[in-house]
């Protein structure tokens, strides 16, 4: 049994490319005295009457660590009556006492959290990452170290399901008087920063302040700063060093900044790094992340506040806060915003202000003239239970969609997307009495959060001669509901075609697929012309869909052909497949259904 256990540990380490630490196992940890979030001294010696003590190293900057706040709180409450004490140690040594106390309150942690001054706690346990758990018996001898469970396969990469609760099982065995079967596992999380500054060896070396910080300011900090949707901040040197390997990997793979098109015409709000910028980041990481001279740093980036386009003509706000629970899959919520307009209006610009940027991932805006959205919201409200962690206005249809075909659209918003006025003389028709359906993509961050997002609408002050109209190119032809994606097919292809009946201009494109989507491409063929790719996405991700605004509108002649080509993965290898085992999937509005289309305006 011992040989088998060791083999499993080594195999897990090899798969992760890292080594499982056995440090301090079987040894007594000397009573550690640190200050808690209130500034009072706290020592592990105070817990000598406990059957076991769990010490967990935490970081309130690490999204993996914060995602475990609720599970740790539940474990602590569950084992408290069985004589087990939980203690957290925060590695955020730059936090003030007040800031640390607020983090603990917000996370609703029911156990003391200590400040790790000068890394004394991390050194005593030889802890390397957050979160990392250590289980001590009644004599403060270390019996287990490692992960809390196997929710993560790697940093920022979740497994489809949790199959082993390592910390819970270690405690159960210890309390039963048994040896811990797996005393060490590989903890997945954020490296605990030690004070290691690398100095550039020559004036030509790539340094943080001179070369890397400008790239982060221009491309990353719009999301990766306190209070925004980025799961961690990239505002200071230490934060960049802590995430250096991920920054290199994600920029080289072009997963970040999040810009999905691999082939396209020119769009506004393009979030792409140049080859030189990607190489600069890689060179900095490979050379040991040298800091350089702070005097070389550019001025801090100024981020906008308030309405960028001036006071809106109509402000639509959620009538109540929406409360989202701390854990689980991201949540898609359809918020019904009545306009109460007594006459038709033309919308020439929208500006969206997230109420809680930490959790608002992106939004899509639809027009409803039928009242179906209100009915869906009413029915869901009637079914709401007090114990539901997701509470508030609106309704949910699967993990997305709005549950019916919209009467029109107003585009959408994603972090980094700037509001713009439409060309003069053009506008979206917003009929009187209509509702705006605001589909919210909420990202969970490990604690209960609230949001009340606001939408500003700007109406045309001059006559509108060009009405913006949406045209949908349905994948699978004009009768897509007759088709389905067969189970266990990882490359099922569909196509759709429409022809334009009159001259017009093309301003925006929005490719759309659901959870089984794999690839999508939209092409245009002018009369007697060659096909031109408007947008192509080789790695479709439902979480990063958006409306693409052309930098220069395209003149479209009558007889122009638009085509959409889509590929689906309905196999068990698709981590987003909601069906396990896979099953045949038919056309539908829910994200668990098949849907391939591209709307353009």
What does this structure look like?
The protein is an alpha+beta fold and 601 residues long. Strands 2-1-5-4-3-7-8 form a 7-stranded mixed β-sheet. A 5-stranded antiparallel β-sheet has the order 12-29-28-31-26, with no helix packed on it. A hairpin with a 2-residue loop joins strand 9 (152-154) and strand 10 (157-158). The longest helix is centred in the first third of the chain and has 15 residues, at 2-16. The radius of gyration is 27 Å and the shape is globular.
Label this structure with key terms.
601 residues; seven-stranded mixed beta sheet; 4 domains; disordered N terminus; alpha+beta; 29% strand; Jelly Rolls; disordered C terminus; five-stranded antiparallel beta sheet; Glutaredoxin
Q: What is the architecture of the largest domain at the second tier of CATH?
A: 3-Layer(aba) Sandwich
Strand content: 25-35%
Low-confidence stretches: 1-17, 589-601
Count of folded domains: 4
Task: Tell me, rounded to a whole number, the average pLDDT.
Answer: 86
CATH superfamily of the largest domain: Glutaredoxin
**What is the helical fraction, as a range of percent?**
10-25%
Summed up, the helix count is 11
Q: What gap, in angstroms, lies between the N and C termini?
A: 65 Å
CATH topology of the largest domain: Glutaredoxin
- Rg calc: 27 Å
Give the CATH class of the largest domain.
Answer: Alpha Beta
Could you describe the largest sheet, including whether it forms a barrel? 7 strands, mixed
Instruction: Identify the overall geometry.
Output: globular
How many strands appear in the DSSP assignment?
33
Instruction: For the largest sheet, list the strands in their spatial order.
Output: 2-1-5-4-3-7-8
Structural class computed from helices and strand pairing? alpha+beta
